[in-house]
Amino acid sequence: MKLPAEFITKYEKLLGTAAPAFFAAFDGSVEKGFRVNPMKPTTPAMRQKMTAAIPYSPIGYYGKVNGNSLEHLAGAVYSQEPSAMTVGEVAKPALNERVLDLCAAPGGKTTHLLSYLKQTGLLVTNEINPKRVTALGDNVERYGARNTVITNETPAHLAKALPGFFDRILVDAPCSGEGMFRKDPAAMQYWTPDYPAECATRQREILTETVKMLRPGGHLIYSTCTFAPEEDEQMIAWLLQTYPEFELEPIEKTAGMVDAKPEWADGNPELNKAARLFPHLMRGEGHFIAKLVYHGAAEPKEPKLVRSDLKPEQRKLWEGYLQQTKLAALPGLVLQAHGDQLYGVPAMMPVTRRLKIFRAGIQLGTFKKNRFEPSYALALASTDLDLPKLAIDHAQWEKYVHGETFQLEASAETGFTVLTCDGLPVGFGKVVGRTVKNFFPKGLRFLATDENTIL
Ligand SMILES: C[S@@+](CC[C@H](N)C(=O)[O-])C[C@H]1O[C@@H](n2cnc3c(N)ncnc32)[C@H](O)[C@@H]1O
């Protein structure tokens, strides 16, 4: 791989005798990986693929998964480069925490955080770029999250709305991307010798706002996919100098991860608690991760939490739908109507005015004239919910994702039913006798075959 000349000179100086092995790794092959979603059943096809476990993640495996497969479309697997999985493992939230993923699209780390929150607590996942936030929304929906609010905001606006609110914040920072040169050589076209310093300016701005949103005792996880010391050790050195209330926590180094390099910043020996991932030392691309605890003193005021705003006729329609199911209510959610759409907003979410909310929670369905139509998102989030379910086979699933109506061998209970294939909820169908009417979203339909959907 032809690397920029200044990049070579810089890392020859920094790495010394390790430089030849580092540069040789750029000509090595890119490792693929995937994570399994612990909130969804494991299919036989997944079991066959889950052979090479990633040593530092109990839900990670080496190998490639197909984006058209049942398992991917139903959110049971997520394709993620193995090094990137260290971030979710270090961030690992506890149940019921208030978590912010500040730079989140397309959602690799967000879905990893969701795996540990297991539908509890609150995840606010934010993406500043309005084009990229859509992919984040798709991935959160597929994953089946009911505890997530998606925002499309600047860190400064979020900090104004949610001061001192979060137990844990992940800043997977926009960076110079040097660690991705091997996987995505196009990333090199943006690189100049000054690019890391430019990225560092933006990272300092992001971190300045992040600090305002942490509660005392909260954790900050900072990660990049670059080798540049300006954005890695020097960023954490700056944070520690500017905010002495932060303390680094050690990251366990396994599978070839190494201590970060104090000598690449201000020499503070604490910096070696952070981790570096180099492609010549481990099976994955380049990353940097630091975990810090915040010892700030001021206890923030508890914010006012969201409340239900349904009109009586909307409540009646929703309750009518619940009566058809065995669901008593949805745990941890506050019901709100946004136009004709019903949302389940995580009950731990504060009232926030003037924030650009891309999705206020899980979209549960649509109020139609005199009836309620449940949504695709509800079906995908229904693994542990008592909704009517009907198992279909792979051939029927192929018809379903193509948008076709199909016939059952025997008639089933009439009404909206979650269709499952290999145990995975795949969407709603409306059963009338032996016929299943298709409610797979129009924009997602495709011509599925046995060949193009192999996991
Ligand atoms: C490394 S990527 C995030 C990858 C994501 N965490 C994942 O695992 O899928 C960084 C993200 O930060 C966003 N970003 C760019 N400028 C930003 C800013 N000033 N504040 C917050 N986020 C920003 C980018 O749009 C990009 O989506």
Automatic annotation (TrEMBL):
Pfam family, one: Methyltr_RsmF_N
Binding residues for S-adenosyl-L-methionine: 103-109, 127, 172
InterPro entries per UniProt: Methyltr_RsmF_N (IPR031341), MeTrfase_RsmB-F_NOP2_cat (IPR049560), MeTrfase_RsmB-F_NOP2_dom (IPR001678), Nol1_Nop2_Fmu_2 (IPR027391), RCMT (IPR023267), RsmB/NOL1/NOP2-like_CS (IPR018314), RsmF_methylt_CI (IPR031340), SAM-dependent_MTases_sf (IPR029063)
Residues in SAM-dependent MTase RsmB/NOP-type domain copies: 1-295
Gene Ontology molecular function terms on file: methyltransferase activity
Highest rank taxon of the organism: Bacteria
Residues forming the catalytic site: 225
Gene3D superfamilies recorded: 2.30.130.60, Sun protein, domain 3, Vaccinia Virus protein VP39
Record bears the keyword DNA-binding: no
Key words, A-Z: Cytoplasm, Methyltransferase, RNA-binding, S-adenosyl-L-methionine, Transferase
GO biological process: methylation
Family: Belongs to the class I-like SAM-binding methyltransferase superfamily. RsmB/NOP family.
Name of this chain's protein: RsmF rRNA methyltransferase first C-terminal domain-containing protein
UniProt organism field: Lactiplantibacillus nangangensis
